[in-house]
Amino acid sequence: MPVAATSTFDLLRTEIAGIEVEKIVSQFGTPCYVYDMQMIRRRVEDLSMFDTIRYAQKACSNIAILDRLRRLGVVVDAVSAGEVRRALAAGFDPHSNPPGIVYTADVFDREALDLVAERSLHVNCGSPDMIEQLGAVSPGASVTLRINPGFGHGHSQKTNTGGPQSKHGIWHMDIDRCLRLADMHNVAITGLHMHIGSGTDLEHLSQVCQSLERTAEQIGRTLTTISAGGGLPVPYREGQSYVDLEQYYALWDQTRKRLEQRFGHPLRLEIEPGRYLVAESGFLIAEIRAVKQMGENTFYLLDAGFNDLARPILYGAYHPISITHRGGVAPSERIDVVVGGPLCESGDIFTQEEGGFVAKRSLPPARVGDFLILEVAGAYGFVMASNYNGRYRPPELLIEDGTVHCIRRRETFEDLISGETIPPVAT
Length: 427
Ligand SMILES: Cc1ncc(COP(=O)(O)O)c(C=O)c1O
Fold this sequence. Notes:
- Helix content is 27%, strand content 24%.
- The chain is built from twelve helices and 22 strands.
- The protein has helices at residues 21-28, 37-46, 63-71, 81-89, 110-119, 128-137, 175-184, 202-219, 245-263, 275-278, 311-315, 413-417; strands at 15-16, 19-20, 32-36, 52-56, 75-78, 101-105, 122-125, 142-148, 170-171, 188-193, 225-227, 268-271, 282-294, 297-302, 321-324, 335-340, 352-353, 357-358, 361-363, 371-375, 396-400, 403-408.
- Strands 3, 13, 14, 15, 16, 19, 20, 21 and 22 form a nine-stranded mixed beta sheet that branches.
- Pyridoxal-5'-phosphate (PLP) binds at residues 56, 59, 104, 161, 195, 198, 229-232, 272-276, 379.
């Protein structure tokens, strides 16, 4: 377990999970996402003290990743009908104990409500309205409530999911109303969940635990599960450390035990990580297609843009970068460069800070044809990819026990225009 360990990142890389970068590229081209299964396995093992690891598949929802996580005993959360169907396609059993799939959202769109009713899925309600809507189609259902405790935390304002400015969860003062709604609509509240944002630290966590305990006491003995939500951070920068998982678990376990004493029955303790399980497994390999000097700035321009990895433009997120020199030459000098993509957008810069300010990174000198790898890209990477500027979404590759599996092929022009039609012209 990486207890408070700090991380280091190399600026030069020749292989990923034991496979040469040049070999991967010669077979699958660039840009491409590569996931290292060994790293995912390690991260699952780190959390094995929790009764249930419920993977927030929004972080990386390829069905091959879901399949492998299911085989490791992990269950999933789904935020849309599409994610429910992904989980079903990957073999999760919605009626296992604990449920293999939980629908967690702040709203039901119509398709999701129909699917939840049809498959009798367990729901984690993020709005009081959901209790009413579910009760109307699935009387007798049991639900979890996702509570907004009145405060939040996040690595960026955009990933803070608690407090009065957040749209997420049921406001902590609304519990009585939820209890009345549940009674009226014949719904049982069996779970309680708090996710205040991505990038949790231990200080915020103890506040979350206290708040969850107060809410649990209000709901009472119908509860059988409490969920710590997601938000476990991973290091993206040199020298950043992991959360101390032993302390993290201890805080939740103490909360659980106090509630068990009060209720007189066991409570299941779930954790719902997305990023923690997959971020470090992922690499986005791109080719450097131009090296330009613009005044005092040197730019490496890649064949991957924010259509492939949106976190830098969305949050000013920092990703470690390494270079693979074609032919393996590895100069030891460093130069300060700006790294950008091919899109017709000045914001298409991977080395930017929140607010869009262009930053420089000290990297090895490189030439057109060398490869640049954006690392720690497995979470909120491919899943946010788009076809902006008519670009095809890249392939996803999974390296498992020394073999590279293509788990999603590169899109083609036919994929790009599929579903589009030109209407006849009125004559
Ligand atoms: C309800 C819920 N659970 C879990 C997660 C996963 O968060 P993370 O990837 O930071 O662990 C999210 C992320 O938005 C979420 O909204």
